[in-house]
Amino acid sequence: MEPLQVLKQYFGYTSFRPGQAEVIQTLLEKRDCLAIMPTGAGKSLCFQIPALLLPGITLIVSPLISLMKDQVDSLVNQQIPATYINSQCTFEEAKQRFGAIRAGRVKLVYVSPERLQNEFFTSFMQTIPVSMLVIDEAHCVSQWGHDFRPSYRAVREWIQVLPQRPVIGAFTATATEKVKKDMMTLLGLQKERIFIGGFDRPNLYFRVVSNGDKMAFVLSYLGRHADESGIIYAATRKEVDRIFMELRRRGCKVGRYHAGMSDEDRRTTQEKFTYDKVSVIVATNAFGMGIDKSNVRFIIHYQMPKNIESYYQEAGRAGRDGAPGECILLFGRQDIMIQKYLIEMSVHNPEQQEKELSMLNRMVEYCEGRHCLRHYILSYFGEQPEWQRCEKCGNCDQETVQEDRTQEVRSICLCVDELKGRFGMTMVCDILKGSGSIKIKRYGFQHNSSFGMLGDFSTGEIRDIVRVAIEDGYLEQSEGKYPLVSLTAAGREVLSGQGRVIQERAAAVLEPAAVLPRRQGKKQTASFDEEALRPLFDVLRAARYELAQQEHIPPFVIFSDATLWEMADRKPDSLEKMAEIKGVGNFKLNKYGKQFILAIDQFTHTQR
Asked: What is the CATH number for 580?
């Protein structure tokens, strides 16, 4: 059987996404590969399809127990022989699963990296033909990655004790150049091919909302999206608990997830979310790495994450089915202090701490800049889009007005020049504001010519003008724990009275509760008019939920939201037409096709 036939028969798609076919072919040729592909690009299919075509079994090393269960549930529902072995298995369950593996009744086996250090497991696998070893979330092997797991370092040694070396596939969603080199070296890849997919997620809409009432925003947003699944991320356990309690008090269907909870409570919470029994999870970033729930429609970061890698991976948990998702970051400057404190408390190596603080500065730039948010993210990961503005993120959508800021920027340049590049943005703003702080008096800066020059502005307004002056190249800011601000050649020209400085600002500041839902006008799902199709989509979603309850599986395992939207649009009235819907494979067609055709038919009759 060819890969394309497997794709259609088991997964219901007639063509591969960009990059998938090449990765699959590489593994089938028994050649190692490293695939860096964004969340939602279909990494799992890249190893699941070769696993079905190669002899023997495929072993998948996965960092989270919850991910194993989600993926195995989905595979088994499609009659793909898969299982997992982890600490949550009872003795009897583990015995049955080992027996099934030995009997050749299983093709894919999911395990945690810690399992490779178990002597019995290693001895057992030495007697089984392992054709392929897959390392999911492979960035965890690098201490320079954002989710370092020391147990991943055991992978290379474990491979060496097998009677025959399997083909190795390493997969991750994000990786810097240093992490990429670590993955190749520390996992022992040989003659590997490297695939770096485009990082763009066109179905995701990015927005930063600054300096507002965060809880008011969340309550308003959830009120407009009550029937959708979403995740709200916060930086600390304490903040997760506070948000959770407030949302529950307001009647929201909400759960919480953080490392301070018991294993059983976390498992129960994730299961309720996966099975659509709660709509929203409030969580620290411990929740959701590799989460396989495809119908998450929104991600709200209540506080700024510590780096772009973490943010993009967490935001990428929205819209995995290809349907629209929204990624909103609620930013306040106190978030910077929180993240600096967490870095200083958790990272003790000076070099690593310096690196993490530098990455934090890039995250702050993302939040505070006027740039296209999508372009900034892609540039961070090394892509250089031909366009400068995507015209479909919060910054590109924002109406702006131009203002002459020549005098203000000249005052800022004077202040920076007087400080000789020895201080950062906070000191510059305080001097221009005319602050009477102890530090200013200690250095005698109240005698500077620039002291109080922008006293009619708030400190926040001064900071915004300084930040834009940095973006526009009049000033530059150093890297490191304490970034210093200095003049550029362009800044010296402004200081000498040459030229005008025109800055853009938002035409109006919206109150958090008034921020528009997703996009104005009718919302489009792929090429569909969601507003017109919503009634039938809700009928199909209810049918899916009922089937999921009967079978004790997550609803998205039956069909994704994207598949339901296509059904609502095309309204198939026969199994032949239903088979043409993306995501309807042969097994699901025969198992569920008639129920959904009946639901569509009944809805159509009621509309006549």
From this structure: 1.10.150.80
Cβ contact 364:336 at 8 Å: yes
Cβ-based neighbour number of residue 323 at 10 Å: 22
Question: What's the rounded Cα separation, in Å, for the pair 309 and 147?
Answer: 10
Nearest Cα neighbor of 562 from 324, 323, 326 is 323
Is residue 515, in this structure, part of any structural domain at all?
Answer: no
Quick one: tokens of 8? Answer: 């259609």
Identify the H or E element spanning 344: helix 334-346
User: What is the structure's pLDDT at 291?
Assistant: 62
Quick check: 580 and 597 in contact, CB under 8 A? Answer: no
**CB distance 6 to 50 below 8 Å:** no
Q: Which of 58, 60, 72, 1 is nearest to 30 (CA)?
A: 58
Task: Give the rounded distance of the alpha carbon of 45 from its chain centre.
Answer: 19
Q: CA–CA separation, 306 vs 333, rounded Å?
A: 13
pLDDT in tens, 118-155: 999 999 999 999 999 999 989 888 876 667 788 888 89
What is the rounded distance in angstroms from the CA atom of residue 601 to the CA atom of residue 595? Answer: 10
Mean pLDDT of all residues in the chain? 88
Q: 319 and 204 in contact (C-beta within 8 Å)?
A: yes
Final residue before a domain boundary, out of 349, 381, 397: 397
The enclosing H or E element of 394 equals helix 394-397
Is 343 within 8 Å of 356 (Cβ atoms)? Answer: yes
Phi, psi of 321 (to 5 degrees): -85, 0
Sheet containing 82-85: give its strands across. 82-85, 108-111, 57-61, 130-135, 167-172, 33-36, 193-196
Is 215 within a domain?
Answer: yes
Give how far the C-alpha of residue 14 lies from the chain's centroid of Cα atoms, to the nearest Å.
27
CA distance 88 to 93: 9
> What domain count does the chain have?
4
Query: How far is it, in rounded angstroms, from Cα 80 to Cα 10?
Result: 8
pLDDT tens, 515-539? 433 443 344 445 567 788 999 999 9
Given a cut of 50, is residue 189 above it in pLDDT? yes
Residues 6+ apart with CB under 8 A from 311: 301, 304, 305, 329, 363, 366
Q: State how beta strands 475-477 and 400-404 pair.
A: unpaired
Q: Which runs of consecutive H residues, i.e. helices, occur in 420-458? A: 425-433, 438-443
| Beta carbons within 10 angstroms of residue 455's beta carbon | 11
- For residues 13 and 83, membership in a common domain is answered with yes
Helices (H), 203-349: 214-224, 237-249, 263-274, 308-315, 334-346
- Segment 93-108 shows an average pLDDT of 95
Structure tokens at 293: 């729930």
Give the pLDDT of residue 514.
39
Joined tokens for residue 223? 């009120």
- Tokens 């870095």 — which residue? 343
Do 235 and 335 contact (CB within 8 A), yes or no? Answer: yes
Domain assignment present for residue 440? The answer is yes
The residues facing 300 across adjacent strands are 232, 328
What distance in Å separates the CA atoms of residue 59 and residue 57, rounded to the nearest whole number?
Answer: 6
Question: According to the model, what pLDDT value does residue 515 have?
Answer: 40
The whole domain housing 412 covers 401-507
Per-residue pLDDT reduced to its tens digit, 433-468:
999 899 999 999 999 999 999 999 988 889 889 988
Residue with tokens 């070099």: 351
